[in-house]
Amino acid sequence: MQNNVTVLKQAIEYRQLIDTLMAEDRFADLVLSGGQLINTLTREIYPADVAIKGKYILMAGDASSLIGPDTLVVDVTGRYLSPGFVDSHMHFESSMLTITEFSRLSIPSGTTTLVADPHEIGNALGPVGMKAMADECAHVPNHVQLVVPALTPDCPNLETAGVDVTSKDMPDLLGYPNIIGIGELQGFSNARHVYRNTPEIITDLVASTAYARSLGDTVDGNAPDLYGCDLAAHIIATGGRTSCHETTSKAECVEKLRYGVYVFMREGSTQKNMAECIRAVTEEGMDSRNCILATDDMVAADLENLGHMNEIIRRTIRQGVDPVEAIQMATLNPCTYWGFHDRGAIAPGRLADIAVISDLQEMTVEAVFLEGKLAAANGKLLLDLPAYTYPESVKHSVHHAPLTEADLQIRAEGQQATGRCIVAIPDQNLTECEELPLRVQGGVVQADPANDVLYIACVERYGRTGGIGKAFVRGFGLKQGAFAESIAHDTHNILVTGTNLRDMAAAVNRVIELGGGIAVVQGGRVLEELALPVGGLITDELGGSEVSAKIDSLERTVTDKLGGTLHAPFMHLSFLGLSTSPKWKITDKGLIDVNNFQILDPIV
Amino acid sequence: MQNNVTVLKQAIEYRQLIDTLMAEDRFADLVLSGGQLINTLTREIYPADVAIKGKYILMAGDASSLIGPDTLVVDVTGRYLSPGFVDSHMHFESSMLTITEFSRLSIPSGTTTLVADPHEIGNALGPVGMKAMADECAHVPNHVQLVVPALTPDCPNLETAGVDVTSKDMPDLLGYPNIIGIGELQGFSNARHVYRNTPEIITDLVASTAYARSLGDTVDGNAPDLYGCDLAAHIIATGGRTSCHETTSKAECVEKLRYGVYVFMREGSTQKNMAECIRAVTEEGMDSRNCILATDDMVAADLENLGHMNEIIRRTIRQGVDPVEAIQMATLNPCTYWGFHDRGAIAPGRLADIAVISDLQEMTVEAVFLEGKLAAANGKLLLDLPAYTYPESVKHSVHHAPLTEADLQIRAEGQQATGRCIVAIPDQNLTECEELPLRVQGGVVQADPANDVLYIACVERYGRTGGIGKAFVRGFGLKQGAFAESIAHDTHNILVTGTNLRDMAAAVNRVIELGGGIAVVQGGRVLEELALPVGGLITDELGGSEVSAKIDSLERTVTDKLGGTLHAPFMHLSFLGLSTSPKWKITDKGLIDVNNFQILDPIV
């Protein structure tokens, strides 16, 4: 037999549970008594006791025969008992927190299962980084598993990642503990473009997805704005049964549900698409079994102040969805998609992951049980959860000699030049583009901060090419100084913007010195900084509150000291590197014309 | 990589489908145009074309760009397009047909996937027999897979099967092609009895189910009339996510759905439970995603005259269920349970298994596509499907020396004795029991045909013990003669009943000579017979119509020549061997008091 020890252990567990149910002298460890059961299987709410033994639910109904002299009976009269919540698509990197610190903030909100796509670390560090995150999964009390990218970077011709992940890496990665499939299939998001321009990517992707399917693994899709044949091709590239977390309109949601896509209705810190997507259910009456709630990106401050999946469910109820149906979208539906058959409902034999809810409309989570143990109450984690420190192998990921101003210069002949300028749009990944007349001084094209035209650059930071892409940008409104960060979707090179090249070089150099992170510079001096030692993306030195406070301070510094006018400037800058979303972006290879898969010169 | 060839082949298939969707000069093979799509994913019906390439659905919607000069466009205006139907729980043995002959009858009704539990052959022949059936699965054009028993016989202390299957057989069986899990978990159907009387069976069963779960396999339950702690224990014994096809009341259905059991609402030739079970949906409004339609046992005549899953769906609609919801119960819902993610809906990337329906209320299936090929039209199979012949290794399963009258005698002292008598109940597996005064002649207790008291015996037929269980029976009404059969649930020894021992011995001896089958004898002469050479249960010599005609002739012989008064006498006799259903039954070990797990003497 395979896995002899695991099988034997499981058989003994089953046997003990059966003994507890059948023998007259054995009893439950714990009975939650007097509550209202939220039954996600039948879409009902009714009074039921829940009996727990070890990690498992023994019974949900009349549990009186299971109460013995040593059974702890907890009165939950007036409370609702829900299965623990699942976030089916998220990136820990967006929070800058370790899995441990994210869990510390999310468990008290009732989230007991997280499926994360570590594609940020994957771009920066490749399999080494993703396996290090998979290792951390084993150290948290909640259920955390990873789905990994089949391709890094997203657009190999247009940008440089730290490591190139391809189908050759799949056997190693998909065989690693806590890695359960392939994450959002980014290489084929823009189906028609990829088909025309880099068809070899499709061949490699289907090799990966066919292999994943042969293991019974899941493959998440990523099909923003795809319809008809393009959507069908994307679905087939994933191997047929897939998801999409980039659905932004009702019509798109209707078509994806009809095509069999599990729609991850996204509602996170930055992108909020649930209210639009849910109209497929509330207005069209579609079967909601393939509707799933997910956050994609959550920052630490939102986790602390708003909650996690409970908040997303609350908002879904506000859109007119029956509370049990909304809860299904964060419990049974995702567990069906992922094959987590031991969760998603409060029923005999399933893991005792339970959220105790005091107000169903507000989704106020009063207590949380994880595998039968009281894990949190009144918003506080009760489990002992030591901070997790990452190994040295995933630190020191920044390799570039210090920059000089000259490295960042954009040169042109004459007195004036026409510069190409990315135009940042508040709260969007998309950009606009402009061509502008700019002054040339001593052969160097000059930014024009008075008219909100700044320099922008992207510095390859993995020691592979050392290349620097350069262009101009509008939208940040800086009056002075510069800021840089090693967060640059999705390759996570160093992005920098500023009014002058000296401060920009200083900011980049500080990020290099930190081994990754964020730096704000004015007059050659570092005003504020945050080290992100793990892959240049995550800190294993700070907790959630500390990160929130630091981000707040960094943002205030940009606004107050540099005169920045765009809120969340680091997040906005980081998405200017995303070479898959139109129109113009910047990578280490230069200014990218996304729609035409071309690298443009910053000067016309 | 594992399965290099399979993975490569799949990747090439994906790539070709993507090419067809994206390249301007490639087109679908077939487009079904103008029909109404039954979308099981969203529970909608709307106009859509369906484009097919090779085995797969390319698109379901606007397929105009996929129609090229060589595309076959079939006008299905006015028809409904449904995914092919799934029967999730059935036994081929009940039809006495090979998988091939069953498929010949069921494909034209729209059934494209069958999951069968070969526990009859499993009891008779063990792994050799089940693997022979799994081999036949590869020879039919529809999708047929098996789930195998974890235990034969059902009650090892009370009966003898041909082969004892236990957990030791699971690695071999569950690793065999076309075997995908464990079938109805019969050893633990009567949870409290087994717990008290043969707890070692539970230990062996959970070893099997834990092993199956470690492979990601399914495990079907079998929980008739179980509630509360007993039901919970049964669910846990299966490993947590399971089904039950033995649910007979609304209350039982409600409890099972609440506990997370997939309820296989049974509607076959003998047992009809759907109308009662469906009330959980129609009256209580429960979420129906875990409701599944299944037949359990279908005889050839019903397949020919009524249809298959289309007929079961039709009856479900008659109970007030929305047609699309009823169709979900035989398509998407079972495919979700089984993990058949490539089926269950008409959507891009899924297999093109499609039923073309002309009348939705009547579920009239006009044509059937299997993996993109037209497989049947107007009730006729269009594919070339040669009859399948089983290997010699699964024939000649009957090993017993010819009986004499003396072998069947029940002896007692004196002139009179009190005999124990099983009372058959029409259309039920359950029996009643009686103790009756009987005449003793020359030391032999006499039957009393004038008062409908016949002899019954069960002869161990596998050459293991040669044992013969004996008792009396009421309910068949024979006036003369005897009949015997090698169908005797679930061990399939030879059951015989009759008015006199001479005809009984002759009938058994004819079944022995046939190598298994059915024989009707009067005055020492065989009046009618049917050979069932495959394990004594199935014929690979006759097709469906021939078997129907033969059964009809056998039944008429019992009625007309022997004076039998009970309809379907062979089926009723066969269930008198079922040692798991109350009250009294007969096995090769003797008269069984099912409720008390005891063997009784036929004489008080």
Question: What report would you give on this structure?
Answer:
- The structure is a homodimer of 604-residue chains.
- Chain A has 604 residues and is of the alpha/beta class.
- Helix content of chain A is 29%, strand content 25%.
- Chain A is built from 19 helices and 31 strands.
- In chain A, strands 22-21-20-24-23-26-25-27-28 form a 9-stranded mixed beta sheet, with helices on both faces. A 7-stranded mixed beta sheet of chain A has the order 3-2-7-16-17-18-19, with no helix packed on it. In chain A, strands 8-9-10-11-12 form a 5-stranded parallel beta sheet, with helices on both faces.
- Chain A is elongated and about 95 Å long.
- The relative contact order of chain A is 0.12.
- The mean pLDDT of chain A is 96.
Strand content of chain A: 25-35%
Low-confidence parts of chain A: none
Helix fraction of chain A?
25-40%
Strand order of the largest sheet of chain A: 22-21-20-24-23-26-25-27-28
Radius of gyration of chain A: 25 Å
The oligomeric state is homodimer
User: What number is the mean pLDDT of chain A?
Assistant: 96
- The assigned structural class of chain A equals alpha/beta
Alpha-carbon distance between the two ends of chain A: 67 Å
**For the largest interface in this structure, which chains are involved and how many residues does each contribute?**
A-B, 75 and 76 residues
Gross morphology of chain A: elongated
Let me know the largest β-sheet of chain A: 9 strands, mixed
DSSP summary: helix tally of chain A: 19
How many strands appear in the DSSP assignment of chain A? 31
